[in-house]
Design goal:
The complex is a heterodimer of chains A (204) and B (431). Chain A has helices at 2-6, 10-35, 60-63, 106-132, 150-160, 190-203, and strands spanning 40-48, 65-76, 80-86, 136-138, 142-149, 164-172, 177-185. Chain A has 204 residues and is an alpha+beta fold. Chain A has a single domain (2-120, 132-189), classed as CheC-like (Chemotaxis protein chec, 3-Layer(aba) Sandwich), CATH 3.40.1550. In chain A, strands 1, 2, 3, 4, 5, 6 and 7 form a 7-stranded antiparallel sheet that branches. In chain A, strand 2 (65-76) and strand 3 (80-86) form a beta hairpin. The longest helix of chain A has 27 residues, at 106-132. By secondary structure, chain B is α+β, with helices and mostly antiparallel strands. Chain B has 3 domains: 6-127, Beta-Lactamase; 152-274, no CATH class; 275-431, 2-Layer Sandwich (Heat Shock Protein 90). Helix content of chain B is 53%, strand content 18%. Classes of the chains: A alpha+beta (204), B alpha+beta (431). At the A-B interface, helix 2 and helix 4 of A face helix 5 and strand 3 of B.
Chain lengths: 204, 431
């Protein structure tokens, strides 16, 4: 499997990026319809965990402090976890869009973040799974950490594994809301992902 | 909605979970036995009714958005008992042994697709009461543990403090013993020097009287050459000066010896090696002997003003209180940079007495006031202060059921006031 990853060509990488862009376009469209607001999903980077700086803590997304980090599993042929990093107010700016009242208590504040995590990972993973033609199901989201960095929470776990890391930035400009998603695809799903990319390249 | 087979219906009814199916308008289309049991409404009752009619307490806006996310994204949505314990108002599932009056629930919303389109939304309700109870137990346990940890930390701190005190009091005891030993050794020689000075004074007086008598006798005998000889001798030995000086010398020596005697006595009083127990003591005496002991540290820095009030005898361990007074007076002297005054006031209020030591020194910044009595807190240069003086004083005063108050103004000076009960409450004396 390691051999497969090492031979990820420039073409394959471009294809994956292209595929991600299509998937995120669809996801953004779905999210926009759901919350009746324009949203932006961009994919600044795709890489293998092994390609990150020798020390993951040198990687900006891993070392930036987050007020809250949530996680949600996706399971099936496409396996992995989505990590979402929120700023100080969590997803409070999106309360009204998500059907919450103003003046959230602590539990509502947490639940709102979990709800946002759920729709974000649902939309992104669904888009990705459709493009790759792989089925995916979901576990319930949960809060992974507060006032921490991704490196502190998952740095050593990710380092050990050959994980495909997709960085996604989510923005709702009208509500000045932004958060970062990290879609981590587990190594056992990588052959299927690469197979799907190759299929796509052949179709061209 | 497509009809269910009998088998599927039987399975859904036997599930130990709530199963509901609603259409996009949230009208109920399926309701399993779990739901009927816990809501006390049959499926016929609720069929076709909007969910919010059946559960009026359900937050509609939020719930609708949840269902919408399932419809739009064709995927799952969740709620957890952690954030939202009782989505549906069901009675607790442990009616006898449980304390929870309501059921804790995890719910899952899932899309039901027909020909690739979501036509309905299924809602699964899992009873999470058991987990919630376990969680609560763990949570309580955790809280107890962390509380115990805090208490332990506190005890450790106290232990450290006690150890420091022990160290300091052993040091003081050693110094006390040394002082007492030295005092004892000096006591003997100064004793006979002092009594000899008395004899010497009498003898010198006798000698002078005798010389004067001789002279009178010679003058009366009418022998001018003898008188002349005596005058020459008196001149040669400067007899007039000797006569004048001798008594001064003796008086000064006596004063010096007296001072040595007093210092020796003060050292003995101060160390009280033999009297480290509760006794009735005159605090003024303790203050005076302490002042004498530390006089060297104080005399170049400050003028000491005593404003003593009327004090009854106080039940205390005098040698320990002397340590407190010494600390306060020495600190006062150290606080004065050039020259200033130290005022010692005493007085009585109700069944308490106070001893206050005021200086005109540099004062204590506010941020240090709270740390003053912490062990090892010092602002003195390295090697000058141990940071134990005030913490020791504090615990000594506490042992006496008293308190120390501080008033300070930077640049103006500081006043430490020690309040002590005249008589110790029973419990403390037993200890």
């Amino acid at each position: 499997m390691a051999a497969l990853l090492e031979t990820l060509t420039e073409d394959q990488r471009d294809a994956l990026k292209e595929l991600m862009n299509i998937a995120m376009g669809q996801a953004a469209d779905r999210l926009a319809r759901l919350i009746d607001t324009l949203v932006i999903l961009s994919v600044p980077s795709i890489r293998l965990a092994t390609e990150c700086a020798p020390d993951l803590s040198d990687c900006p997304i891993f070392s930036a402090p987050s007020a809250y980090i949530t996680r949600q599993s996706f399971l099936g042929a496409l396996r992995g976890e989505v990590l979402v990093c929120f700023e100080q107010d969590g997803a409070d700016e999106l309360a009204s869009l998500m059907g919450f009242d103003e003046n959230l208590n602590t539990d509502e504040h947490d639940e709102l973040m979990l709800d946002v995590t759920n729709i974000l990972s649902s939309a992104c993973i669904k888009g990705l799974a459709e493009q790759l033609e792989l089925p995916a199901s979901f576990g319930a989201p949960s809060i992974l950490a507060t006032n921490s960095t991704l490196f502190d929470k998952v740095g050593d776990v990710i380092n050990r594994d050959q994980t495909l890391i997709l960085e996604i930035c989510f923005k709702v400009e009208s509500h000045s809301f932004t958060c970062d998603l990290l879609v981590c695809v587990a190594r056992e799903s990588l052959p299927s992902v690469i197979e799907a990319i190759n299929r796509m390249l052949e179709d061209l | 909605m497509a009809p269910l087979s009998d088998l599927l219906r039987a399975v859904i009814d036997e599930l130990n979970m709530g199963v509901m199916i609603v259409d996009p308008e949230l009208r109920l289309e399926l309701w399993n036995r779990f739901m009927a049991m816990h809501s006390c409404r049959t499926e016929e009752d609720v069929q076709g009714r909007v969910l919010f009619d059946v559960f009026p307490d359900l937050p509609e806006k939020w719930f609708r958005q949840k269902v919408r996310s399932v419809l739009e994204l064709q995927t799952l949505a969740f709620t957890s008992w952690v954030q939202r314990p009782h989505v549906f108002d069901f009675a607790g599932s442990r009616p006898i042994t449980g304390k929870q009056s309501k059921m804790y629930q995890d719910t899952t919303f899932f899309p039901i697709l027909e020909h690739g389109n979501v036509t309905h939304v299924g809602i699964l309700i899992a009873d999470a009461t058991e987990r919630a109870v376990q969680h609560q137990i763990m949570h309580d346990l955790n809280q107890r543990l962390s509380q115990e940890k805090v208490e332990q930390q506190h005890l450790i701190e106290k232990l450290e403090e006690a150890q420091n005190q022990l160290l300091q009091s052993e040091k003081m005891a050693a110094i006390g013993q040394l002082a007492a030993g030295v005092a004892h050794e000096i006591n003997n020689p100064i004793g006979y020097v002092y009594s000899n000075i008395g004899s010497l004074e009498r003898s010198a007086q006798d000698l002078l009287d005798m010389v004067r008598a001789w002279r009178e006798a010679v003058e009366a005998s009418g022998a001018p050459e003898l008188v002349e000889k005596l005058d020459d001798l008196a001149k040669k030995y400067d007899f007039d000066f000797i006569q004048e000086d001798l008594s001064d010398l003796i008086a000064e020596s006596r004063e010096g010896a007296e001072r040595v005697k007093r210092i020796v006595q003060d050292l003995k009083d101060f160390s009280h090696v033999d009297k480290a127990e509760w006794q009735l003591a005159d605090l003024h005496k303790g203050l005076d002997s302490t002042l004498n002991v530390v006089w060297n540290e104080v005399k170049y820095k400050a003028e000491v003003i005593k404003e003593y009030g009327n004090l009854p005898e106080v039940e205390c361990i005098a040698s320990q209180l002397n340590q407190v007074f010494m600390n306060l007076i020495v600190n006062a002297a150290h606080a004065i940079e050039e020259r200033g005054t130290i005022t010692i006031r005493t007085g009585c209020k109700g069944d308490e007495v106070f001893v206050s030591v005021s200086d005109t020194g540099c004062g204590i910044p506010e941020q240090n006031l709270t740390k003053l009595f912490e062990p090892f807190f010092t602002t003195k240069p390295v090697g000058k202060g141990t940071g134990l003086g005030l913490s020791l004083s504090y615990s000594i005063v506490q042992r006496h059921q008293g308190r120390i108050e501080v008033e300070s103004e930077v640049g103006r000076g500081t006043t430490f006031t020690v309040w002590l009960p005249i008589r110790q409450p029973e419990k403390q004396v037993d200890e």
